[in-house]
Design goal:
Layout lengths: L1 H19 L6 H26 L9 H25 L5 H9 L3 H12 L4 H27 L8 H6 L2 H13 L3 H16 L1 H15 L9 H27 L5 H11 L6 H8 L12 H29 L3
Helix pairs in contact: 1-5, 1-10, 2-6, 2-8, 2-9, 2-10, 3-4, 3-6, 3-11, 4-6, 4-11, 5-6, 5-10, 5-12, 6-8, 6-12, 11-12, 11-14, 12-14, 13-14
């Protein structure tokens, strides 16, 4: 267990160390470019290789495809209601964004590989694609809609441009090829995919160091964001997975994968998205600087807290 934990922590510590010694002229630029590499090349290659792999066999019924969208919709409805009850309606958009966007690729897939096993990567790759599709469609739209900036986002176009959405589609097409062709496709993409986890965890460490002061600025609204991400979505997903396994609708491994991915902290991607729409309501329906700050705080706080919540989630997943 200690070795598995070190495998995950070591790249994060290296990233933080790079920030401490100021290895890069611009930490923000380094995070941006490494994030782009992981998001547009490494993780799509990892997902593609995981699905085209001849060892991956998918036996999924309707429940497999329903868990992610149903639990996401239920969580977002609770976000809307809860934001009103708690008096943080102005933050409902950013709460919806961070709830939708978990760190399912950067932290989720490495976590599955270390603590569930390599056999989880095939299903995990497909589950990540389902989560990414839902978050890319719902997150930006609700960010603007519930932040008072209108619905100027183009969530469908944004999702279509995301390589992580197309990676599983191409992976399933690759599975139709002869075995020798599949072997070549897997062999070409696997090395790129293997770089995904260390690069992503390095970026995470670099980002956490650059924004380490955010935890001191955390407010009640920040904690509302964190609770929505680390409690709300996992609660719905855990209940759905438990029921589906008991009824024989979902395999235990699939339930474990879905639940653990729902427990991931807020993704670094959420900062890039909210930053893109910064500008205030007077600027073509953008979001405020406070929204950007709140998302930064949520990423840092939820990631640090996940060091305690993920071991608990792993134990819960074993009880399905």
């Amino acid at each position: 267990m200690l070795v598995r934990i070190l495998v995950l922590i070591a790249p994060v510590l290296l990233g933080a160390g790079a920030g401490i010694v100021r290895l890069f002229d611009s930490t923000e630029a380094a995070v941006h470019h490494l994030n782009r590499y992981a998001l547009y090349f490494a993780f799509p290659a990892l997902v593609f290789a995981g699905i085209v792999d001849q060892r991956f066999e998918l036996d999924a019924g309707p429940a497999f495809w329903a868990v992610v969208p149903v639990c996401l919709v239920l969580s977002l409805l609770c976000v809307r209601l809860g934001a009103r009850v708690l008096g943080v309606s102005r933050d409902a958009g950013t709460i919806a964004l961070v709830t939708s966007f978990g760190n399912v690729a950067y932290l989720g897939l490495p976590f599955l590989a270390q603590f569930v096993g390599p056999e989880a990567l095939g299903v995990g790759s497909l589950a990540v694609a389902l989560y990414v599709t839902g978050s890319m469609i719902c997150g930006p739209y609700l960010l603007l809609r519930w932040s008072g900036g209108g619905a100027n986002a183009s969530p469908l176009q944004r999702a279509v441009r995301q390589p992580l959405l197309w990676a599983p589609v191409l992976g399933f097409l690759g599975r139709l090829a002869p075995d020798d062709v599949r072997s070549v496709l897997h062999g070409v993409t696997e090395p790129v995919g293997q770089s995904a986890a260390p690069v992503a965890l390095f970026v995470l460490g670099l980002y956490l160091h650059a924004n380490r002061s955010a935890i001191r600025r955390a407010t009640f609204s920040t904690w509302a964001h964190v609770v929505a991400k680390l409690v709300l979505l996992p609660a719905w997903t855990g209940a759905a997975c438990w029921l589906a396994v008991r009824q024989g609708w979902l395999a235990h491994l699939d339930a474990q994968v879905f639940f653990l991915l729902s427990c991931m902290p807020a993704a670094i991607t959420t900062f890039a998205i909210v930053k893109e729409f910064e500008g205030g309501a007077q600027n073509r329906g953008g979001v405020s600087r406070e929204n950007v700050e709140r998302v930064t705080q949520t990423i840092v706080v939820s990631t640090l807290l996940s060091a305690a919540t993920l071991p608990a989630a792993l134990w819960i997943s074993q009880q399905f």
